[in-house]
């Protein structure tokens, strides 16, 4: 059958009709072998791609994870025997089947429970192997990464436990992939919804020991640092403006309680936290510095960051905020001077 299909692979009507009919009467294993045999024997033209993609991406959905791995292993062996000019077309067929299989297994609750951590890691390796010619990350690989790293264990209720589990998972994640891909193009905000912290209620529960553990666990892992930054940002965005002064006081006190109230260039999590507090709660309010409560710890750290790590924050925003406060004080002093002159003039 493979010889016949290879012979008519340039005649679309005949090839399509015979392949479709054949696929209805054979096992998936036999259909896969026909695909590999034809790929070895003929040029993988648009007709072959069109009909094998149409048929295989449907058939692949009903095979087990173990069978799928067998299919991929045999395809990778076959790949070595395919003419160079047709290898990309062959990979496109495999990639389409992979996308369909992963989407079905990851998103359908009927099948998702069958995917163990080992299975997910093997699927991810396959996904990146198939996409060697692409610079972006295909959606199927993103689905696997989300399942691997961001699915919350149902037994975990405490915010700290969720964060620690997440940090550990990311630290254990494939280092080559972490180095190759920027987290900003991989990790999506909606993946972090289970990790958003209610401020100030839940945030204040991060005591000194808990917070220190988080600080020691990130290991300057750029994926973890990005995740922390987004969690802090998304959490602060939920803070209501009318409660901002009260919240700022509590956060300032929290920094003191966890013993991270003195600027340290290596205290990455605290620096990120303070910068977001300034940008989201303080600077966006467009209020003068004198209208805020005494948040000395937060402002001291901000000023130190502005002096030593200017690339980490909006320097102009900090300068404008401080200058507005200075201008306000000058105006008050000027007003007092004018009032005194008027008083002397009349009396």
Q: Mind explaining what this structure looks like?
A:
Residues 337-347 have low confidence and may be disordered. The protein has a domain at 1-151. The protein is elongated, with a radius of gyration of 30 Å. With 347 residues, it is mainly α. It has helices spanning 2-7, 12-25, 28-41, 46-59, 65-79, 84-107, 109-112, 117-130, 139-150, 159-172, 175-180, 208-217, 222-236, 244-257, 268-282, 296-308, 315-346.
Write out key terms for the chains shown.
347 residues; mainly alpha; 17 helices; disordered C terminus
Task: Give a brief rundown of this model.
It is built from 17 helices and no strands. The protein has helices at 2-7, 12-25, 28-41, 46-59, 65-79, 84-107, 109-112, 117-130, 139-150, 159-172, 175-180, 208-217, 222-236, 244-257, 268-282, 296-308, 315-346.
Topology diagram in text:
Blueprint: H1 2-7, H2 12-25, H3 28-41, H4 46-59, H5 65-79, H6 84-107, H7 109-112, H8 117-130, H9 139-150, H10 159-172, H11 175-180, H12 208-217, H13 222-236, H14 244-257, H15 268-282, H16 296-308, H17 315-346
């Amino acid at each position: 059958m493979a010889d016949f299909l290879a012979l008519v692979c340039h005649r679309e009507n005949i090839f399509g009709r015979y392949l479709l009919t054949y696929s209805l009467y054979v096992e998936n294993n036999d259909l896969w072998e026909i695909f590999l045999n034809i790929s070895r024997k003929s040029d993988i033209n648009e007709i072959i791609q069109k009909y094998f993609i149409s048929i295989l991406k449907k058939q692949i959905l009903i095979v087990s994870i173990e069978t799928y791995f067998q299919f991929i292993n045999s395809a990778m062996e076959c790949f070595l025997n395919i003419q160079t000019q047709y290898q990309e077309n062959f990979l496109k067929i495999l990639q389409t089947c992979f996308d369909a299989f992963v989407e079905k297994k990851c998103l359908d609750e009927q099948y998702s429970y069958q995917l163990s951590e080992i299975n997910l890691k093997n699927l991810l390796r396959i996904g990146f192997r198939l996409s060697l010619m692409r610079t972006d990350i295909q959606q199927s690989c993103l689905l696997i990464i989300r399942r691997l790293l961001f699915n919350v264990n149902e037994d975990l209720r405490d915010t700290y436990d969720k964060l620690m589990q997440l940090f550990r998972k990311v630290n254990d994640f494939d280092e080559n992939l972490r180095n190759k891909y920027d987290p900003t193009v991989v990790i999506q905000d909606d993946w972090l919804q289970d990790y958003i912290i209610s401020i100030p209620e839940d945030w204040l529960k991060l005591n000194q020991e808990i917070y220190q553990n988080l600080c020691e666990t990130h290991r300057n892992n750029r994926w973890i640092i990005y995740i922390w930054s987004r969690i802090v940002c998304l959490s602060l965005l939920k803070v209501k403006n009318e409660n901002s002064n009260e919240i700022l006081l509590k956060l300032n006190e929290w920094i003191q309680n966890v013993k991270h109230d003195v600027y340290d260039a290596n205290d990455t999590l605290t620096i990120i936290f303070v910068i977001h507090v300034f940008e989201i709660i303080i600077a966006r309010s467009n209020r003068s510095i004198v209208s805020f409560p005494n948040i000395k710890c937060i402002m001291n750290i901000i000023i130190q960051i502005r002096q030593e790590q200017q690339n980490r924050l909006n320097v102009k925003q900090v300068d404008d905020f401080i200058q507005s406060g200075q201008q306000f004080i000058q105006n008050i002093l000027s007003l007092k001077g004018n009032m005194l002159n008027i008083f002397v003039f009349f009396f």
